[in-house]
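The authors assume throughout that readers already know how a fold can be written as discrete tokens. Each protein is reduced to its one-letter sequence and a matching series of backbone shape codes. I therefore recommend that a typical entry be quoted early in the introduction. For illustration, here is how one protein appears when written out as sequence plus structure tokens:
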Amino acid sequence: MEFPQKGIPIDKIKGELIALKSGDMDWKGARAFSMVFRASEDVSKVVETAISTFVFENGLSPFAFPSLLRMETEVTSMTADLLHGGPNAAGNMTTGGTESIIMAVKAARDYARERRPEIKEPELIMPRSAHPAFNKAAYYLNIKTVTVPTSESSIVDLDAYEKAFNSNTIFAMGSAFSYPHGVIDPIEKMAAVAKEKGVWFHVDSCVGGFILPFLEKLGYPIPPFDFRIAGVMSMSADIHKYGYVSKGASTITYRNADLRKYQLFVYTDWNGGVYATPAISGARSGGPMAAAWSVMKFLGWEGYMRLAKDAMEATRLLMEGIKLIPGLHIIGDPPATTFAVGSDTLNVFTLGDAMKTRGWNIDSQHMPPTLHFTVSPMHLKIVEPFLKDFTDAVKEVSLLKQEDISGEAAIYGMIGSLPDRAQAKEMTTQYFNDLYRVK
């Protein structure tokens, strides 16, 4: 596509934007179960106001924009309070959970370099259910990943976890809760093992960090998962998920500022001046910072608890309805608002495709094949029509023959069936490399 020779009038730009957006999933109508977390129209207006007020401000310089410095420090302080970090906790905002995770792994690596310089080949321990952002962090930072198996209910094998530690281990983690199946790892036991062995332990609460505390306050049986556990040294929690803020707004929090300093990058020998950043990004948009600060102030504990209650009620109704549909089951025993649906008799990827034809967007997962549901308050209003369509789709899929399977079901089926995982990776890499081209 050639660079335009002349500018286009704003009215035409608006028209083209609306036309482009028409093909996207209908998240405003609560017909999607991932990607966007929406609370209500009034919260959306708060977000839009905050972003438009700080749309051009740059968080790279806390001296040029002290407003952003104040909002970022207050957001991270409120998050630390939510996660029982205490008065010494310290952190920063990032553009998303992946960046928060990379910063935590980077901090742990540099912490280990200073205290255990004999380690030349550092290792990171993660359950199979952990987010691939930990694999990405290890890949970028030249750290070996050691993946611990999980049970059919997505619970980590504690014996295998403990045996995975060795003299090169510098980092271990657990999820509260895991994205694929919404299960909380046994954080207390995992952190205790890491503490005993002198290893940095991180809790990935990117999805759960802004809903589990409110569910616990509402009386739901949420096990301890945060800084109340002695071995926890850092936590990641996304505000752009159950904090109901637009992308990208996440937090990385440390037990104290002495640990946080290992996250920082500082370069003092550039002729452009001293260059210091708390995260991967140099320039950082002020919009997400302002939006996070504004929504947290706007909702408070009261507002977040109301939204958590609605999301949990929607989850309960959806899970109960799905369990009544023959051939489907829930993976494990998820305690919060994320769950996965599997089947021993149906091709769930084909089921997902059948729901897309009905206007619903549900993510597919494999190993084992499941459909993923992350439930927001907005889903409370669509429970009945969704369950009707889901029941109809199950009946439709149960009548299909193998040769009728196409779309995402065929792609996942092929990737999952390849015994050579290097070949599966190569095929997926080529697919994504071709995807990001002008059509």
Q: What stands out?
A: The two ends are 9 Å apart (CA to CA). The chain has two domains: 49-296, 301-433. The chain has a mean pLDDT of 91.
